[in-house]
Design a protein that fits this description.
This protein has 199 residues and is an all-alpha fold. It has nine helices and no strands. It is globular and about 55 Å long.
Length: 199
């Protein structure tokens, strides 16, 4: 049973003078291994971590990717100093965990294709078939039509609700790049929906 939440204790001097959000305060308190602070940190951030993983990869993989994110985060937590929001720091870890997962999937597919010298014709036909038209324009599928960089910027700002500055920090790019990616993502999504409406 998780103990009742209590206010996190004073944070170290590295973050003194900075107005810290609750999740960041819990993260700083959790650095020393406090199980109450650790549980509160996870509760305060898990929804956004799961949503980003589900959007970047797949809802079916989101639980495992969220778990991987927190494993990485707790290993790196002693070095987190609270100079910025723990939210952007943690979503950056989530993004890297998703990228690593996708690279792993691609490697496995390449290996499988090398091992399958003669694929079955039925499998080839099924792999290239169009998805069910009724499901074609579900929101997840629409987002998957975007290039990875635009999809990530759109999800971070429009679905998760980060500011452009926070999203730029997560992505490691200038704010203007995020603005441009989000604008292009919107235009592409509108074009796909318009095309669907006229077909």
């Amino acid at each position: 049973m998780i103990p009742a939440q209590r206010a996190p204790e004073a944070v170290p001097s590295a973050s003194v003078g900075i107005d810290l959000d609750a999740a960041t305060r819990w993260a700083l308190a959790a650095r020393g291994g406090d199980p109450v602070a650790q549980a509160a940190f996870v509760r305060a951030t898990q929804t956004e971590v799961w949503r980003l993983a589900a959007a970047l990869v797949d809802p079916d993989a989101a639980d495992d990717l969220a778990q991987e994110t927190y494993l990485r985060a707790f290993r790196a937590l002693p070095d987190f100093e609270g100079r910025s929001s723990v939210r952007t720091w943690l979503l950056g870890i989530t993004r890297r965990a998703c990228a690593d997962h996708l690279r792993s999937v691609v490697r496995r597919r390449r290996l499988r294709s090398r091992l399958e010298a003669h694929p079955e014709p039925e499998r080839s036909v099924m792999a290239s078939a169009e998805p069910d038209p009724a499901q074609r324009f579900a929101s997840t599928e629409l987002l998957r039509k975007l290039p990875a960089d635009r999809r990530s910027a759109f999800i971070l700002t429009q679905l998760i609700g980060l500011s452009y500055t926070e999203a730029a920090e997560v992505e490691g790019v200038p704010v203007g790049t995020i603005r441009s990616r989000v604008a292009r993502a919107r235009a592409e999504l509108v074009a796909v929906l318009d095309e669907a409406g006229t077909s």
